[in-house]
Amino acid sequence: MTRWVRRLMVWHGAALAALVGAASAVSACPTCKDAVSGDPVAAALSWTTLVLIAVPLSLIGSIGGWLFFAYRRVDRAAAPLWSMLTGKESES
To answer: What's the whole-model pTM score?
Structure first.
Protein backbone atom coordinates (compact mmCIF):
# COMPACT_ATOMS: atom_id res chain seq x y z
CA MET A 1 0.00 0.00 0.00
CA THR A 2 1.11 3.48 -0.65
CA ARG A 3 1.75 5.96 2.07
CA TRP A 4 -1.32 8.12 1.39
CA VAL A 5 -3.64 5.08 1.46
CA ARG A 6 -2.32 4.12 4.89
CA ARG A 7 -2.69 7.68 6.10
CA LEU A 8 -6.25 7.81 4.79
CA MET A 9 -7.07 4.52 6.53
CA VAL A 10 -5.69 5.85 9.81
CA TRP A 11 -7.75 9.04 9.55
CA HIS A 12 -10.90 7.12 8.70
CA GLY A 13 -10.28 4.70 11.56
CA ALA A 14 -9.78 7.59 13.99
CA ALA A 15 -12.95 9.29 12.79
CA LEU A 16 -14.94 6.06 13.13
CA ALA A 17 -13.59 5.49 16.64
CA ALA A 18 -14.53 9.04 17.63
CA LEU A 19 -18.05 8.62 16.27
CA VAL A 20 -18.57 5.28 18.00
CA GLY A 21 -17.16 6.63 21.24
CA ALA A 22 -19.37 9.72 21.19
CA ALA A 23 -22.56 7.89 20.17
CA SER A 24 -24.05 8.03 23.65
CA ALA A 25 -23.46 11.76 23.92
CA VAL A 26 -25.11 12.63 20.62
CA SER A 27 -28.70 13.78 20.95
CA ALA A 28 -31.40 12.80 18.50
CA CYS A 29 -33.83 15.26 17.01
CA PRO A 30 -36.71 16.28 19.30
CA THR A 31 -39.30 14.41 17.23
CA CYS A 32 -37.32 11.17 17.45
CA LYS A 33 -36.91 11.55 21.20
CA ASP A 34 -40.67 12.06 21.59
CA ALA A 35 -41.43 8.98 19.47
CA VAL A 36 -39.14 6.86 21.64
CA SER A 37 -40.69 8.19 24.86
CA GLY A 38 -44.19 7.13 23.76
CA ASP A 39 -45.79 10.33 22.48
CA PRO A 40 -48.65 9.23 20.13
CA VAL A 41 -48.34 12.29 17.88
CA ALA A 42 -44.64 11.67 17.30
CA ALA A 43 -45.30 7.98 16.63
CA ALA A 44 -47.96 8.91 14.07
CA LEU A 45 -45.52 11.30 12.44
CA SER A 46 -42.92 8.52 12.24
CA TRP A 47 -45.40 6.13 10.59
CA THR A 48 -46.47 8.84 8.17
CA THR A 49 -42.86 9.40 7.15
CA LEU A 50 -42.34 5.67 6.62
CA VAL A 51 -45.45 5.41 4.44
CA LEU A 52 -44.44 8.46 2.40
CA ILE A 53 -41.08 6.77 1.72
CA ALA A 54 -42.47 3.26 1.12
CA VAL A 55 -45.20 4.10 -1.42
CA PRO A 56 -42.96 5.62 -4.13
CA LEU A 57 -40.29 2.96 -3.58
CA SER A 58 -42.80 0.13 -3.97
CA LEU A 59 -44.28 1.79 -7.05
CA ILE A 60 -40.88 2.20 -8.68
CA GLY A 61 -39.90 -1.34 -7.67
CA SER A 62 -43.05 -2.87 -9.13
CA ILE A 63 -42.65 -0.98 -12.41
CA GLY A 64 -38.98 -1.97 -12.55
CA GLY A 65 -39.85 -5.62 -11.84
CA TRP A 66 -42.50 -5.61 -14.55
CA LEU A 67 -40.03 -4.15 -17.07
CA PHE A 68 -37.40 -6.72 -16.08
CA PHE A 69 -39.72 -9.70 -16.52
CA ALA A 70 -41.14 -8.29 -19.75
CA TYR A 71 -37.59 -7.91 -21.08
CA ARG A 72 -36.72 -11.47 -20.05
CA ARG A 73 -39.89 -12.84 -21.66
CA VAL A 74 -39.13 -11.09 -24.97
CA ASP A 75 -35.50 -12.23 -24.82
CA ARG A 76 -36.58 -15.85 -24.33
CA ALA A 77 -39.14 -15.63 -27.12
CA ALA A 78 -36.56 -14.16 -29.52
CA ALA A 79 -33.92 -16.84 -28.81
CA PRO A 80 -35.13 -19.37 -31.44
CA LEU A 81 -35.34 -16.63 -34.05
CA TRP A 82 -31.82 -15.46 -33.18
CA SER A 83 -30.36 -18.96 -33.54
CA MET A 84 -32.17 -19.41 -36.86
CA LEU A 85 -30.82 -16.12 -38.24
CA THR A 86 -27.24 -16.47 -37.01
CA GLY A 87 -26.88 -20.25 -37.19
CA LYS A 88 -25.58 -20.48 -33.60
CA GLU A 89 -27.12 -20.97 -30.21
CA SER A 90 -27.89 -18.04 -27.93
CA GLU A 91 -25.39 -17.27 -25.16
CA SER A 92 -27.91 -17.17 -22.32
So the answer is: 0.45
